[in-house]
Amino acid sequence: MSDFDIKGMLFSFDQLSDTYLHDEVEEALRHREEATPHLIKVIESVADNPLLYSLEQRNAHVYAAAILSHLEETAAHRPFIRAFSIPEEQLVDIWGDITTEILPTFLFRTCGGSLEAIKELIGNREVDQYVRCAAMEALSYAVVAQPERRAEVVRFFLGLFTGEEAERDSFFWANLAATLCDLHPGESMEVLRRAYEEGLIHKGFISLEDIEKINDMDFDATMERLRGWTADRAPADVHAYISWFAEFHQEELERMSPPAKDKGKKKKGQAKAKPAKKSGKKKKRR
Please, are residues 105 and 234 in contact by the beta-carbon 8 Å criterion? Predict the structure, then answer.
């Protein structure tokens, strides 16, 4: 692929359109080595100047993020983190619901097995709470991939209940509790009960009764449910993967079938235009 072709591809990705750019995505995949540095540069441009990127209403970042994640490109991991560690106003404008819906997959698929940068992101109080919550979910995906890391991840999560990690009205701890439930509460119950009594966990997000109920569930069944959820969040086919969180013409959606569990749902975080604004809080599966 020549520089001219790469520039043309990026120009096409940047345009707001109702049409999914299937051929351009295929071209990027066929020329991975040449395209990857340019796609990473797109993500870095979001991190370096989010206000300008937002004002210009550009769109290439959606395609770049999806392709780099699909390719499991580890060089994109830190740029991803920087691109989502931007001020909230630009975060919502640029990434929308992608933050809560797809960022966990971005982080996990580009981490190369190293969880340190994701842990740092979770612990960073300067970062938007929904980004931090997405990073928590990424760690649960890591446990699905490597079950032997469950103890490491649970231990890390339990160390985040001091009450100093976020503002008191943050959903940080509630999402933390919900993610521990995804991994089966088990050994976390004492800390979760105490956090609930101290008012850290929002009752409207997840109740203590919900936590107790999940704790009574079979461990293997809980982990199997998490495996199914994780598989649905990262389809092997990149075109299905992009269509999972993007909105295009109906004929495009019919041609690219989304994961079975999400059929009938309208996903936000558009590739045809700037992503829709994210929802008020992350809804965890039960």
Answer: yes
Q: Could you tell me the residue range of the domain that residue 119 belongs to? A: 3-262
Largest separation between any pair of C-alpha atoms in the chain: 61
CA 124 to chain centre: 17
Backbone angles phi, psi at 77, to 5 degrees: -60, -55
Q: Is residue 280 part of a domain?
A: no
d(CA 133, CA 233): 16
**Residue 285: inside a domain:** no
**Alpha carbon separation from 34 to 29, 31, 49 (Å, rounded):** 10, 6, 24
Taking each helix axis as running N to C, give the angle between helix 129-145 and helix 172-182, from 0 to 180 degrees, rounded to the nearest 10. Answer: 10
pLDDT digits (tens, 9 = 90+) for 71-107: 999 999 999 999 999 999 999 999 988 998 899 999 9
Measured between alpha carbons, how far is residue 245 from residues 49, 242, 249, 256 in Å?
A: 24, 6, 13, 12
User: Helices (DSSP H) in 149-188: which residue ranges?
Assistant: 150-158, 172-182
Is 183 inside a domain boundary? yes
Per-residue tokens: 253? 């959606």
Q: How confident is the model at residue 248 (pLDDT cuts 50, 70, 90)?
A: low
110, 124, 20, 100: which is closest to 70 by C-alpha? Answer: 110
Residue 268 lies in a domain: no
Of 1-15, 34-48, 170-184, 192-206, the least confident: 1-15
Number of domains in the chain: 1
Instruction: Work out the pLDDT band at 259, boundaries 50, 70, 90.
Output: very low
